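#struct-pred

JT: dropping the chains for the assembly here, can someone run the whole complex?
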Amino acid sequence: MSEPLLSVDKLEVVYQRAITAVQGITLSAQQGQIVGILGTNGAGKTTLLRAISGFHGTDDARVTEGTIRFKGRRIENIEPHRIARSGIALVPEREKVFPNLTVAENLLVPAAPGLVLAERKRQEAQVLQFFPKLEELHARTAGLLSGGERQMLAIAAALVAKPELLLVDELSLGLAPVVVEDLAARLVQIRRELGITVLLVEQSAAVALEIADYSYVLENGRIVLDGDRARLTNHPDIQEFYLGQSSGKRRSYRDVKQYRRSRRWYG
Amino acid sequence: MLAAIYALIACGYVLVYRVSRVLNLAHGELMMLGAYALMLTAAQFTTYWPAAIAAAVGLSLLTGVLVYLFLMRKMTGEMVLAAVLTTVALGILLRGVMVLVWSAQQQYPAQALGVANTSIALPGGARISFFSALLILTTLLVYGALLSFLRFGRWGIRMRAAGQSPLLAAQRGINLHAVYALAWGLSTLTGALAGILIALDSGLDQTMAIIGLKAFPAALVGGLDSLVGALAGSLIVASAEVLLIHYVDPLLSEVVPFLVLIAMLVVRPWGLFGTREELDRV
Ligand SMILES: Nc1ncnc2c1ncn2[C@@H]1O[C@H](COP(=O)(O)OP(=O)(O)O)[C@@H](O)[C@H]1O
Ligand SMILES: [Mg+2]
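RK: done, full complex below.
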């Protein structure tokens, strides 16, 4: 196999010099893959994506161990705008659009500086073909968009910068199932037509497993399980605790806790 | 006239506050520094006064950028209060240095440049001095330029984006340091324009920083993060000042802006056009 586009090796992230949120994560993404990161609340998924896309001064977070390589170059602890310019775009979990700017202005912000107008328009048109609805909403203030529209805008704004790696933090969070279906299909189409690589963080294992070629399961800041779609969908633990398809009798909360504890020794 | 002065100064407060949530309490001193810079450039360009003004304004733009790069940039990630206190310290330092260098004496850059401040007759019998007229015109031009820059300019949109969500702006590839430096540069530039035109109109001494401070209530009344608000706030504060001086007591001049400010803060703490904000980090 050729060298992966992104490779994370024994990554450790510490908040406020005290709280270790990610401990020893190793993963990689091949060019053109959709890679899923599954895990429950507080597993460290957001922290992982933020480490890749760069911490900001106010985050008070640092990569203290391990490396992140993008196209062979080390990028840990570099300022976010430099990482963005190098070809990584993030669709954040929470603040994902500029609420007081219009849709059009939101799409203008990320375009590379010094781009001539015609080139910028062409790039924007290419992105908007995936989200024709945004075209109608051009002059709307982003803060007034619905959750689904906002997610579309966030993805579109990330794509305008022409990234090679797209990081999506919680595609499905707070959205209706039909909207999620639709967004997931667009993501697959975007990957196919633009050939970009996607790292998709999801609480909802069903969504991630449906479109990801390869997935990692995160718990307590560690990877406890990984594999391709077939392996994970058929894995008993995944079926039981992430997809919620209990075969036969439902397990009790104590079993879940037991499972959690046993998992801790994996990483 | 007074409204134009306040408005031209107030937009400097608004620019910096809007993108970085920092109150620049050294704005009055930076404005005064711009006026003194004119004394320097006046010595170089004795023959053509607009060139002297342009050079002084250019120097001020540079000063603002340098203040950000070498001082305020270090405050990134600190509490806003710490950054504001830094600007207070900067103001005191600048004032001290300016007294040392230029003394506390009144100076007249207009004489140094050899321009007469002729008075122009207005329709209706009123008269206005040349530099007052120029100041009003400049204020209108500056507001027009700033508003359209923030509305349509690439960097203007970036400045608004960074003001709303610095983190997302950085994640979208915007160099925040460049945006903040630009805001400081533009803010100091507009302040210097005001300082220079006031100095040309009525002379220059250490009290100029007080005019800068009096414009601060104007910015705050308008809501600090709104240029239109700053314009309205300046009109309100200046009208109140002129009326009270005329009908009550000229000695009130120094306190009127602050009285208006307090009245405003009681009624509507976020200003006329401002948005409600909680205190934030730099
Ligand atoms: N800014 C922060 N400061 C301190 N701890 C944090 C911060 N952000 C997240 N954490 C901690 O890091 C762990 C992982 O959080 P996060 O990456 O947000 O998880 P996920 O995205 O998987 O829900 C959690 O235990 C959380 O409490
Ligand atoms: Mg998260």
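JT: nice. The interface with chain A takes residues 76-77, 154, 157-158, 160-161, 164-176, 281-282 of chain B (CB under 8 Å). The two ends of chain B are 35 Å apart (CA to CA).
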